[in-house]
Amino acid sequence: MNNANQSLHPGTRDTIARGWLRYLPGVSTLRSYRAGWLKNDIVAGLVLTTMLVPVGVAYAEASGVPGVCGLYATIVPLFAYAIFGPSRILVLGPDSALAAPVLAVVVVSASGDPSRAIAVAGMMAIVSGLVCVVFGLLKLGFVTELLSKPIRYGYMNGIALTVLISQLPKLFAISLEDQGPLRDMVNLVKAIAAGKSNWYSFAVGAGSLVLILLLRRFDKVPGILIAVVLATLCVSVFQLDRAGVKVLGTIPQGLPAFSLPWASGVDIVRIVLGGCAVALISFADTSVLSRTFAARANMRVDPNQEMIGLGVANLATGLFQGFPISSSSSRTPVAEAAGARTQVTGIVGAAAVAAVLLAGPNLLRHLPNSALAAVVIAAAIGLFEFADLKRIYRIQQWEFWLSVCCFVGVAVFGAIAGICIAVVIAVIEFLWDGWRPHFAILGRVPGLRGYHDMKRYPHAAQVPGLLLFRWDAPLFFANAELFQQRVIEAAAQAATPVRRVVVTAEPVTSVDVTSADMLRELHRTLHERGIELHFAEMKDPVRDKLRRFELASIFPNESFHPTIGSAIDAWIEVTRRGLGPDA
């Protein structure tokens, strides 16, 4: 019996193949791959590896999971994104911005058990991956655009501070129970004052941090690798581990194994919220980063496919002993500067990291934890945004204070709660703009074309008996009552008796059931006062909604005018003929 696919017409099979390939952009890239790109991709992948290993281990430790998981969370996502990701050079893996929310869940749920920590972090990656994939398939890639720039600055500044504070105890080789950023800082100061710090550890970590920051200005110098290698040699040669400097130790040899993450007795709600939070952060950062690098290459990236690629990468790492990952704003430029042309760069980098796990895991056993802390602190410093906040304070102070509220929320209540606060503030900000929108009474200004706000032009002339009312927002449940109130007030306060109100509805992009019922009531109220309610410049989709909401009998075709000018002409014709609302 022939296979069903073989019975299809060749053109149909090609169409189906092209349909599937839109979800596998990496396959499309490989089909058009040029031999001349291979050398660039291999060199860039090997250069990238010099960052992937130390950064992966450092961010794993910062996230509360064993360092080797950072290598697992580097290898698997790079392979997955190479197939499903639309960006040609974006580098995915462990990220400093995710360390705080992951740690916040792992610390509470794992109770210090490394195996439970791996399971909890894997569960968060699965949740994050599912959220991203579902949102991508539903074409909801725009949702992160609901977070305004000041709000993003606020929660990222809070996360940066949280990450920085979480790494300071490791710099001093002090163990502290996580109690939130501010209390952790107080407890750290008390521990240092009590003489619990290890100054050898601090010297190694602080030296590494200074070296990383100094070498950061040189784009082609692998500052992180140099700092980590020197710190490792210092500990090994001078045997500082015997002086209390904590080191990574031997990591397991071999590649990550498939494992369905599950830990009994954990707070599932906390894990789900944490997974959603990291999904929000990771896609917000990834969408911006992918668009930036696509613009440099004169390409366009589909945000929905970007979300799918990120989601599949998180699902994959969650199933192979990894933890939530995102795009990297530090490693991607390294790949670009090294000449990367396609995602083969990521594949080469992942293969090189796998080779380290197979052949040389003991190379990392003397790697000091304070040097890893320095790597994370350097990344956290790069997350802070102050310069643009100064500009925002200068031009729009209330948005600046929104940013501060988000920052305080993360700094005081922790990463997960703080991000939830940021989302709530974003929703409130969105609703507020539509809840109390600008409105205007329009008049004709001599010598100026069109009809303009009489508050700005008090000498503007109105047509006797006619009120032109403009509402600069969609009509929906939050502003429907205010709209009705403002129309009635404007009609009552007009200089001459009003016989017809024309709502200039071009800015009204939508209506809902609540606002439709309000229009029904407003029509009745105005009609009782001898006033007609008409509309000008209403968009066809909005008018279609009014019909669907059963308002066609109340507002016949004569109630709608294509332009303000035609609405005025119609009223002048009515007055010329001596007609009125009840004619």
Summarize the helices and strands and which ones pair or pack.
Layout: H1 10-21, H2 25-31, H3 37-62, H4 67-84, E1 92-93, H5 96-110, H6 114-137, H7 149-171, H8 181-193, H9 199-215, H10 223-238, H11 268-296, H12 303-318, E2 326-327, H13 331-337, H14 344-359, H15 369-383, H16 387-395, H17 397-413, H18 415-435, E3 439-444, E4 451-453, E5 466-471, H19 480-493, E6 500-504, H20 513-528, E7 532-536, H21 540-548, E8 560-561, H22 564-577
Parallel strand pairs: 5-6, 6-7, 7-8
Antiparallel strand pairs: 1-2, 3-4, 3-5
Helix pairs in contact: 3-4, 3-13, 3-14, 3-15, 4-12, 4-14, 5-6, 5-7, 5-11, 6-11, 6-12, 7-8, 7-15, 7-17, 7-18, 9-10, 9-15, 11-12, 16-17, 17-18, 19-20
Structure explained in plain terms:
- With 583 residues, this protein is mainly α.
- Helices cover 61% and strands 5% of the residues.
- The protein has helices at residues 10-21, 25-31, 37-62, 67-84, 96-110, 114-137, 149-171, 181-193, 199-215, 223-238, 268-296, 303-318, 331-337, 344-359, 369-383, 387-395, 397-413, 415-435, 480-493, 513-528, 540-548, 564-577, and strands at residues 92-93, 326-327, 439-444, 451-453, 466-471, 500-504, 532-536, 560-561.
- Strands 4-3-5-6-7-8 form a 6-stranded mixed β-sheet.
- The longest helix is centred in the middle third of the chain and has 29 residues, at 268-296.
- The protein is elongated.
- It starts with 9 loop residues before the first helix and ends in a 6-residue tail after the last helix.
- Residues 1-17 have low confidence and may be disordered.
